[in-house]
Design brief:
single chain, binds S-adenosylmethionine, Rossmann fold, alpha/beta
Length: 260
Amino acid sequence: MGWEEVDEGWGRLARDWAYLMEPSFWPEFDQVLRDAGVGEGTRYLDVCCGSGLAAQMAGRRGAVVHGLDASQRLTAIAAARSPDGDIRYGDMHDLPWEDESFDVVTSFRGIWGANDQAVVEAARVLKPGGTLAVTFLPMDEPAPFDQWWVSIAKVSDHEKEVGQILGSIGAEGRVEEMCEAAGLVPGERQWIRFEFEGGPEVEDFVRASLSAGPTYTAVQERGQDDVEDALRRDFTPLWDEALGLRIGVVVEYLVATKPT
Ligand SMILES: C[S@@+](CC[C@H](N)C(=O)[O-])C[C@H]1O[C@@H](n2cnc3c(N)ncnc32)[C@H](O)[C@@H]1O
């Protein structure tokens, strides 16, 4: 699939992603922005920025905000969230900025195992001494949220296959290798643990889940009813009458620096 087709899957329910799914990842954005030192005047780029919540949070910390995503319908919301920012529609493998433009580049679950060239591009646009932070789902720290991927893969052979390739970024040494090949110096891997707030009812989470790209492929393969049923069945046991749906997540990340 070419990057121009990404919007078909990721953009069709852009408002749902922006307002029902993306906000639940805020603890991840918060920790990484802090760890990467994003603050007043930081020249900041978020690659695969989606509907731009991380970029908006960076802006509130005083950063000069830039973002890029291959979904036009998501970038429209990202631009509305960061009206003073530079938010562009484009491909992570071919960034439309000059060499050495940024102090910090992030990607939140946007760069995966097949995207070596995206790391090369991120390294190119970083200033010497700049920082790249990449988050992904860990391979060896199972958490309840991983059931989401399992549920989708259960109904989609395509997603099962793609998921394995993309998820390989979490394999031992893989993200480090991608950074080193791009001329960056990787730090130690780190973990973020938080509770994803799925919503007051399981149905809210089912609706939000339909807005993600992989769900689109699964829906095309097996139909919306099968996908919804799989999610409903797998997440209902986590629902609590007093607390709603809270799902434990572990996200792994790596911060790498560009030598001066
Ligand atoms: C898992 S979502 C993460 C979105 C956002 N970072 C967040 O945390 O909500 C992956 C994002 O990657 C974007 N994407 C996929 N392929 C891309 C490409 N080749 N270039 C730029 N963005 C891409 C999708 O449109 C989607 O917004």
